[in-house]
Amino acid sequence: MSVHSYVASAASDAANFPFGSETIWLIIVKIIGMFAFLVVMTLMMIWWERRLISFMQYRIGPNRIGPFGLLQSLMDGLKLAFKEEIIPAIVDKPVYFIAPVLSTVPAFVAFSVTPLGPIVSIGGHHTPLQLTDFGVATLLVLACSSLGVYGIVLAGWASGSTYPLLGGLRAAAQMISYEVSMGLSLAAVFLLAGTLSPSGIVASQEHHVWYAIALLPSFLIYLISGVAETNRIPFDLPEGEGELVGGYHTEYTSMKFALFFLAEYVNMVGVSALCTTLFLGGWRAPWPISLWDGANSGWIPILWFLIKIMLLLSGFIWLRATLPRLRYDQLMQLGWKVLVPFSLVWLLLVAALQALRNTGRPAWESTLWVGIPVLALLAIIFRIYDQRTLRAQAQATAQAETDATTPPPYPTPPMDLVVPPSPRLGVAAVTTTVAGPEHSDGEEAPRV
C-alpha cells in the first residue's frame, strides 16, 4: 500500500502507517525536529520550574535575561559549556567519558516512538508526526529507561570516590524496584488496547474513555513510578545532596555534568509523553473540544499534546516544592510492599474483566462478576484490619493503666528536687543580690 493510498483510506490515523516508506530527507527532518523539540522543552522546563517554584515560595525567579527571564536557561547552558573541566586523577577515563553519553542517548531514543500528532503534509509528502512505530514499540521505551541507569551506575563507579559510588548503587536499586511496578501498570493498558503500538493505543481511545479514567489505579501507579524513574523529589535518593554531596555526578563538571542534567529533564519529558500517549488520549483533543471536527486534524493536535505534557511536568515541580525526600527504607517499602503487590492484584482483575468481555458479555455484567467478589473481599479485609486495630488499642490502654499503677523498677528523683550548692565553693556561702521583689523595709531580697 502506498503512502497516498493509505492517507486516502485512513485519514489522520497513524496506527497502520507504513513507516520506512518516506524519503530520506523527510526522515532526517523528523529526527532533527525531535531533537530540537526535546532540547527546547528542556530549556523551557528549567525556566518553568524556577518560575513556578518561585511563585509558590513568594520569590521572583529568573527575570533578567530575555523577556520574563526566558533566556536564562540558555545562558546557564552556555556557561556550563565554557566552564573549566576538572577531571580527577583517579578516575577510569574511558568509562568516565562514556557514562554521560550512556545516560543521555537512551532518553532521546525513547522519544522516537512517541506520536505527537496525526498525519500531516510536509513538503508535499504525507507523514505522521512520529519518527517510527512498530508492534511492540512501547517496550522500546521501557528498555531505554532501563539502559539509562547504566550511565548513572558507571558514572559513580568510574569516579573512584565513595559517595558517587553510593549514588550509582542507589540508582540501580531504585530502577529495579520501580521498573517492575511501571511495567505492570502498562500491562493493564496493553490488555484493554490489544496492542503495544503507541499509535494503536492512541487510536483505541478515540471512541472510548481515556485509560486514565478506565484504569485509574494503573494511572496512579505509573505516575508514582515515573517520578521514581526520573530520580525526582521525593525519590531523588541517587543525588541526595544532604548525605551524598551531590550523588553520582559529584566528580563531573562542565559539559559532562550538563549531559546528566539534560538526561534528567529529557527523561521527565519522555515519561510525561508516554503517560499522555497511554492514559490521556495522546494528541487527541479532550472532550468537549473533540466534538469540533478540526480539533484532531492537521497541526492543531500538537497543541493538545503540549498542554497535557506541561500539566504533567508541572506536577513534577509541584512535588518538588511540596514534599521532602523519603528515607531509603521508605523508598524500598513503597516499591516492593505497596506498589508491586497492588499492581499484581489490579492486573489480575483487569485480565479477568477483559476475559469476561471477550466472551461476549456486556460491560456492566462483566463488571458485576468481577466487582462483587472484590468488594466482598475488601470488606472482609477491612473488617479484619479494624478488629486488629481495636485489639491493639485495647492492649495499649491496658498497658498504660498497668504502668500508671505499678511503681517503676528504678528510683526516680522527686519533682521538687533542689540541687544543693557545690562543696567546691567553700564553707562560706556566696550571697549575691539580684533584682527581685523588695521587702517591707525597701531592701531587695538576697539570693544564695
Provide an overview of this structure.
There is one protein chain. The protein is mainly α and 448 residues long. It has one domain. The chain is 61% helix and 5% strand. The chain has 14 helices and four strands. The chain has helices at 3-10, 24-56, 72-81, 93-110, 137-158, 162-193, 198-204, 211-214, 216-229, 241-244, 254-279, 301-322, 328-358, 363-405, and strands spanning 117-122, 125-129, 432-438, 444-447. The strands form two sheets. The chain has a two-stranded antiparallel ribbon with strand order 1-2. Strands 3-4 form a two-stranded antiparallel sheet. A hairpin with a 5-residue loop joins β3 (432-438) and β4. α9 packs antiparallel against α11. The chain is globular, with a radius of gyration of 31 Å. The termini are far apart.
Can you give me a brief rundown of this structure?
61% of the residues lie in helices and 5% in strands. The protein has 448 residues and is mainly alpha-helical.
